[in-house]
Write a structure and sequence with these properties.
19 helices, globular, 404 residues, Rossmann fold, alpha/beta, two-stranded antiparallel ribbon, single chain
Length: 404
């Protein structure tokens, strides 16, 4: 059995994702595909547009064999922590041969060079020194050091969003001393987060904007995924909107003081005071984001900080690595993969809520965070859902799809 892992959000699952899976199968000799997917909240610092099990269903209908969840502390983290959590999950599965990811640069070896430099403690200190001296953002400091070591071409590579994540995946593989083989698939069609479209492919952000504005997006999504979306829509479970949570988030923020924010990941240099001042004088989340933003703190980082605070995620929660593998969905091939994973037993595997009682204290805490996050996500849906659904919603099983 050969297995290739992909790390994804599928927010929502679209034609570009399907293309990536198809190319992955070609380049990995028709191996089984394991998707490590973010849950109900994503790295942009907001709810996913659709519940995680429905996104898992779409993935299973379009070439994925098994979907595992990236727990919320890592799914909503910076690129480095997001990548480390996801790659660690792939390593701990014990069955993964390849890791496939999209990128703007098809040169794996050059990206691996960059990854090695970023993993080097000497260069890490240089980046921090540059960051402190120039009072710039961390990405700017990192790019400056990479330019001095490897040249302008490598700096250009690091300016592309998919390349940034690809390099973080490579850094994690190196850090874990993993023999998983990286496979880079050059992005086709629209640029990441752009509003352009080509060959039936546009960015997930553009599709989400179309969904929110009521425009027709169906040509950019596989037909079987459209059916899943339509069913969710009829059940008042699509789309999930951050705007429905805004008052709750603002209420939570107004009850907090600087010491509360100091416990949140990525808070440093007194930004907690800036957040509190912005909260006092703002009536919307966007207003807070705009007021807190500085040259060193990007909008994305601020969104993640605010969301982590709302969800109760602390720096301690992301100081380690995912303590279990939770299965969201699988097909017949996935059952074979799961059987082999269980025989390796590197970390606990959660299939149903009753499995949680066998976890240790740290793992139970992460699972409780996940369940609480889902309870809040349920308020972002067109019709609110009750608490506890993360413990009662069943695993997605799709028989006889993509069987090898």
């Amino acid at each position: 059995m050969r297995v290739t892992a992909v790390i994804a959000e599928y927010n929502p699952f679209h034609n570009g994702h399907k293309y990536h899976i198809e190319e992955t199968k070609k380049l990995s000799e028709d191996s089984f595909v394991m998707a490590i997917m973010s849950g109900n909240f994503v790295q942009r610092g907001e709810p996913a547009v659709m519940e995680k099990r429905e996104r898992a269903r779409a993935a299973l209908m379009n070439g994925v064999d098994l979907v595992a969840e990236l727990p919320v502390p890592w799914a909503t983290a910076s690129a480095e922590r997001f990548a480390r959590g996801a790659v660690y999950t792939a390593v701990q599965a014990g069955i993964v041969d390849n890791l496939s990811f999209g990128c703007e640069c098809g040169d794996i070896e050059t990206m691996r060079q960059i990854a090695r430099v970023l993993n080097d403690k000497v260069y890490g200190r240089e980046i921090k020194q540059y960051y402190d001296d120039k009072m710039c953002s961390y990405p700017e400091a990192r790019a400056a050091v990479i330019k001095s070591v490897l040249g302008t071409d490598c700096t250009d590579i690091m300016s592309k969003p998919n390349n940034i994540l690809a390099i973080e995946y490579l850094r994690a593989l190196i850090s874990f001393k993993s023999d998983i083989k990286p496979i880079g698939i050059e992005r086709t069609g629209a640029v990441h987060d752009s509003i352009s479209a080509a060959n039936g492919i546009t960015s997930a952000m553009n599709i989400r904007n179309m969904i929110k504005s009521g425009r027709n997006y169906t040509s950019f999504i596989p037909k079987n995924s459209i059916e899943i979306i339509n069913n969710a829509h009829e059940a008042n479970r699509f789309p999930a909107l951050y705007s429905k949570l805004e008052t709750a988030v603002l209420s939570d923020l107004r009850r907090k003081c600087p010491s509360d924010f100091k416990e949140v990941p990525d808070v440093a240099e007194g930004i907690e005071y800036r957040i509190c001042e912005a909260v006092k004088s703002s009536v919307s989340l966007q207003e807070i984001f705009d007021k807190v933003k500085t040259k060193r703190y990007t909008h994305a980082r601020i969104r993640r900080i605010i969301l982590s605070s709302f969800l109760g995620i602390t720096s301690e929660d992301v100081s380690s690595l995912p303590p279990y593998i939770r299965i969201l969905g699988l097909n017949d091939n996935g059952r074979l993969m799961l059987k082999e994973m269980k025989s390796n037993f590197f970390v606990p595997i959660i299939m149903k809520y009753s499995d949680v009682k066998y976890l240790d204290g740290e793992a139970k805490k992460i699972f409780a965070l996940e369940s609480a996050a889902t309870d809040l996500f349920n308020l972002s849906l067109p019709k609110n859902r009750v608490c506890g659904t993360d413990m009662t919603d069943e695993i997605v099983y799709i028989p006889n799809i993509n069987k090898i």
